[in-house]
Amino acid sequence: MEATLLSNNGQPIFQIGDEITFGYPGRIIFPGVPDDLISKPTLVWLLENGLYAKQKVEASYLTNGINWLSDYVVTLNEKDDRADLLGWVTIDNRSGTTYKNAKLKLVAGDVNRVRNDYEYKAGLMKYAMSEAVSARDQFTEDSFFEYHIYTLQRPSTIKNNQTKQINLVTAADIPVKKEFLYYGAAHYYRSQYGQVVSNQKIGVFVEIDNREKNNLGMPLPKGTVRVYKQDNEGSLQFIGEDSIDHTPKDEKIRIKIGDAFDVVGSRKQISWKKIAYDTYEAGFEVSLRNHKKERVVVKVIEPIPGDWKMLSSNYPHKKTEAFTAEFNIPVPKDKEAKLQYKVRMRF
What we know:
Low-confidence stretches: 117-137
Oligomer: single chain
Order of helices and strands: EEEEEEEEEEEEEEEEEEEEEEE
Number of helices: 0
Structural class: mainly beta
Largest sheet: 15 strands, mixed
CATH architecture of the domain at 176-209 and 254-346: Sandwich
Distance between the termini: 94 Å
C-alpha cells in the first residue's frame, strides 16, 4: 500500500487514495533530506542578471553575536607625572561562523540601533580560544560621518567562539597630572545644619591631555582604563581602574584611581541665615588633613545652587561653571589646612 505523508507535526497525517488518515502506529523513517529542505539556518539569494555579461554583486548585512571593546593600560612612573599607555581592541566572535582573511574595520561612536528582542545571547557560550596579536598589527584611524573608523592593516581571521586582542595604540612618556579632588553637594546650602555635614573621601585622579605633543593625539574609543605602578621592588601593582567615554583628539581624559588613604577631609556649616524669602547666606569650613610625607594640593569643588555671590573666603576661588566654585588648597605634610568661606544665594 502506498501513502502520501502530508504532515509529521505531532503525529503523521497520510493521504491514501481519496482518504485522509492519521494516528498510524510506528515511526516514520525518511530515506534522505529533500534538496529544497534547509536543515540549518541559511540565507539563500536568488539573483537574475539582466545583462549578457558578468556583474559584481556586493552584499551587506548585519549580524549579531560579534562585538568589540577597548581596554587601556596606563603605567605611572615613580613621581606620578609621566606614564606609558597601551590600548587594545578585544574582538569577541559568537556569531556562529568563522571570518577567514577578513578586512577588519571597527566603527567607534554611539551608533543608534533599534532593539531586537531576539538578540544573540553571547553570554551563554564559552570561550574556545584566546589569542593575542602583537603590536605590529596596527590600526589606521579615519573620520567617518560622525564616527571614527579603525582599519587593521592586514587581513585577519576571526574564528567562531574566538576572542582576539589586537594592539590599538602605544604611547610612552606621556605627561600626566595627578589631582586630589574633594566634592561638596548642593543640598548643603538649602538648610541649617548644626554638625559636620559631610566626611567624604578625597578622590585621586590622573588627567591625560590627548594631544600629539604628548605622544597621543588620536581619537580613543570608550573603554576601561587600568592603572599600574611599580612598587619599591620593581613589581607592577594594580592601583585602580575607570571607564572613559569616546575621546576626540585634543581633549582631556580624567581617570579616577581611587580614594586617598592619607589625605582626609571634612566639611561643616558654620553659619546659615535667611535674608529674604528667596535669599540665604551660608558659611562653611572645610578641613583637609595631610598625613603623607610630602605636600599636596587638594582641589575643593563646591556645587553652589541658585544665583550666588562669594562674600568672603580665606583662599581664592574660581567660578568654573554657573553653579560651581573651585578652590585649590595647599596642605603641607603632616599638617591641616582649613578653608572658610561665606556665600549668598538667591533662588
